[in-house]
Every structure is written in structure tokens, then in C-alpha cells.
Amino acid sequence: MTKTLKGIAASDGIAIAPAYLLVEPDLSFSKSSIADVEAEVARYNDAIKTSTAEVEKIHDIAKESLGDEEAQVFEAHLMILNDPEFTGAIENEIKDSKINAEAALDETAKKFIAIFEGMTDNPYMQERAADVRDVSKRIMAHLLGKELPNPASIDHEVIVVAHDLTPSDTAQLNKKYVQGFVTDIGGRTAHSAIMARSLELPAVVGTDSITKDVKNGDMLIADGLDGDAIIDPSDAQVADYKQKSEAFLKQKAEWAKLKNEPSVTADGKKFIIAANIGTPNDMPGVKDNGAEAIGLYRTEFLYMDSSDFPTEEAQFDAYKEVIEGMNGKQTIIRTCDIGGDKHLDYWDLPEEMNPFLGVRAIRLSMQYKDIFRTQLIALLRASAYGPLGIMFPMIGTLAELREAKQILAEEKDKLAKEGVKIGDDLQVGMMIEVPAAAVLADQFAKEVDFFSIGTNDLIQYTMAADRGNDNVSYLYQPYNPSVLRLIKHTIDGAHENGIWCGMCGEAAGDNTMFPILLSMGLDEYSMSATSILRIRSLMKKLNTADIKELANEACYVSETAEDNEKLVNNLMKKLNK
Fold first, then answer.
1. Which class is domain 37-143?
2. Using one digit for the tens of pLDDT, what is the confidence trace for 305-327?
3. Is the dihedral of CA 299, 23, 218, 138 positive or negative?
4. Coil, strand, or helix at residue 157?
5. Which of 77, 142, 489, 504 does the annotation list as catalytic?
6. What superfamily would CATH give domain 257-575?
7. Per-residue model confidence as pLDDT tens digits over 30-44
8. Catalytic residue at 504?
9. What is the pTM of this model?
């Protein structure tokens, strides 16, 4: 029976395909004594064989679609499944204790995990604990007759359905097969939504109940334009949505004609429309959409996609590849922004009651200066290959900024003394995402070459509303006059002190926000690459004289976010007549 769930349109486009549930099954079990030991051992060996065949298949798919590095983890899993010390110990536990295979597996796996985790002087062996945990979970699933989801094993067209998707889950999605995704929770600024836009995958988030309402293999429509998820659609609905998809693709084809056009207003004023990226793999999207710069390179994905801290050389290669790929256009690279909702398995950080207000981004870099210095050295070396902006995230005080700049200056001096070439076109900037920094924008502007406003965090900190918490999502208001005043104050503070100001938060690519930002005189608009041509098209229709008063009205006349939505909608209707 057809059912429509209303969610949030998180990434443009329409997908029609069977559902693939990326949901962990319940693997709880009861310990019990057994009478027929041989039958239990046979049942256990069947689970080992099935698990081995499954991992071999996943390994081959991962190697072909995601590359050798992503496939290595499954090679480690195969080694454990073929290791008689591990598998034999479980079999012996079944025979000696006459207990069910689930209990024997659980007890033996815990012993092995404890041994590996105790090898504090050998990080490589410590990492094997995670592999044992993963392999044990797979064997347990087969013993219990459950199926474990794995995005790397997908080998046919699907729409991924999940409660939420972590950045690492999203990074594993193979665009060849994954047509889109739908989640229970999340918003447009969730990292999974941002990644979906980078991958050009239609996405609907925040449906509340998609994982409960859909089964594996159910036909599903994900309408990333209007935010609907339709389960078991009728033939007529499928036909309608295919037409809607074709209309959207025609619109995209019109926008594509602007790929090599400059970003100018109707009255000839030029601005920069840039792209946000996570890894060098995003570069085809940057070029296909005609980005005039990279306004945000999120380096944390280098850390998140690795099983250990990326080396200086690995970072240098990743930065150099992007900078060279931009052919003389500026690349702004943000130093590592780990913390909040972004964690690393191999970085054992203390748990915090309120991680978004805790030790994250630049605060973490200041506590772990050796890791910070390694990144800065790689960035400085890469600056020799093209225009580079190094950007510090989460700056809240002048002392933080000055300390970060001092460390950068020290590493720059060391490299110069060693004869290492450093680029001439190197700028140092900071993100404005802490309200305290926005209020003191005129002071910070004297210390840097540019600002980049991170609206995703600026909004959540201004409104005291966790952007990932559905219960307070109504407070996540980009158009709220208080937020807009902070943005305008930041832009004015930059211009009064002779520096340029950009925006790399998702609001830069928002149709309602864009005319307000243009009225404020924002210099650079950085967004998911897939939004660039749409915004360039919108820019060409706007005359700066027609929107001259929009910023002041939005900041100082409007009382609510809803007032500002109406204000922009009415203005656009008037201009389009």
C-alpha cells in the first residue's frame, strides 16, 4: 500500500529504486547449554563459511568500486576468519563448555579484543581489536539468521534507507548503484546531506519513520526537490515522478550552459561562486559545475577515511592534487575540524557532556600541537603549487587566532631555512562561526586576510539549538534577523578593514538567503558544487540597485525569520514580472 512520508529536501533530484536498509539488526542472544555438541560445531562452521564468502564478495566489490585502500579492511577480516587460533578457540569453547555457539563466540571474542586493546605499545595490533569486533558481529548475525548491512556490498541500483548516515557511511556509497538516500533524522546542514550534495545524490532527511515503514526491496521514490519519500508508489506516481525528474534534468541542462560564464549580476557586478569539497575525489564536480574557487576544503575527511593519523606526505599529496587541479584559482583549506559530531576511532579523546561546546576544531589543534604542526607543514609545502588560503575554524578569541598564526609562522620560518619552496600567493583567514567572533569582526579583520562565515555553526550557536536535534529544529533559522545582523556586521567589519569576506556555510547556496547576502555585499559564495550553476543563474537575474535596501530591511525592519522569507519571495515576484 502506497505511503508518503514528509521530510526535508536535502539534495536536489529524484530517485526511483528499491530500498536498501542500512540498519543494524538486533544481535542479542541467550547463553544456553547444548546436548548435541557436534551439531552445534557444524552450525558454527556453517556461519564461518557463510561469513567468509560474504566478506570475499564485499572485498571484491569494494576493490572495484572504492579502490584498494578501502578494500584493505576486508582483507584483515578475511585473515581473522581464516585464523585457526581465533576460530579454533571458539570451536573448543563450544566443545569444552558445551554452550551454544553464540555464547562461545561472544566470550572468546571479548578475550581477543581485550588482548589487542591492551597492546598500548603497538598501535597496529591495537587496531586489530576493531577488526575482531566487526568479524564477530558478522559471524553472530549468521548464527542468529540476521543480515548485516554493508554499503560497500551494494551491487545493484538502490535508495539507501537509514536512521542517519555518518560521514564515513556516506563516503562508502558507490554512486554507480546508490541512486539516493532517505533518513529518519537530520536536516539540510547534516554532514550526510552535505555529502549527498557533493555526490549529486537526491536525498530526503528527517522523515521520522522511514526505517520502520519500509522493508528491504520495497520500491521507493526519494523526491529531493520537495522532501517527499513515497513507499510502494503506484504506476501512475512512478510515471509522474519520471516526468518531474526529466523536467529537473532539463533545468540542469539550462544551468549547465553557464559553466564557463563569470558570476555577474544583471548590472555587471562580479562576485566569486566557489565550491565546498571534502576530498580530492570531489574535484570532477568542482570542474563540471564551473567553480571559480574552492571556498572550503574540509580536511577532516582525510583523517576520517584513514585508520591512523594521515602522514605529512599523505596530506601534502592530497592538498597538492587539489591546488594544482584548480589551475591558478584559489583553494581555501580549513585546518582539521574534528569534534562535535565528527569522531576518529583512533583518537582517544575524553567524552564531553556537550561536545559542540567543547574541545573541537582549533581548540583541539591547540591541545595537540604536534598533529596541528604536521598539517600546517603539509599545507605550506603545497602552497608552492597555486594560490592557497589557510583557514582556522572555530576561532572565538584573538588569543586563539594569534597563537594559531604564531605556530604557522614558526613552521613557515623553519621550512624557509631548509630551502623548502613556499607559495607567494598565500593568505591566512579564519571562519566566523562563533558569535563572539562575529561581534568583534572589526578587531579580527586586522589580523587576517579574509573571513569565511560558517553559517551552519553560527546559526546553531546564535540560536542555542543543536542543528542535529530534531526537537529544536524549528530554532535553526538562517533568516532570523539576529543571525542576519551578525552576518552583516561581519561583512561590514571585513570591508571597513580592507579584507574580503566569503561564506562557506550551506546558506550561501540557499535561494532565499542569496539575495540578502548579495545586498550585504558578500564577496564570495562557497557551496556544494551542485548548487553553483543554480545560484549563478539566480545572480544573473538580480540587479544590485533593485536589492539595495533588502539587507537593512531583513536585519532591522523584519521581526521574524518568516517575515524575511516573505520579504524575499515578494521581492522576487516583483522582479520577475
1. mainly alpha
2. 777 889 999 999 999 999 999 99
3. positive
4. coil
5. 504
6. Phosphoenolpyruvate-binding domains (3.20.20.60)
7. 999 999 999 999 999
8. yes
9. 0.75
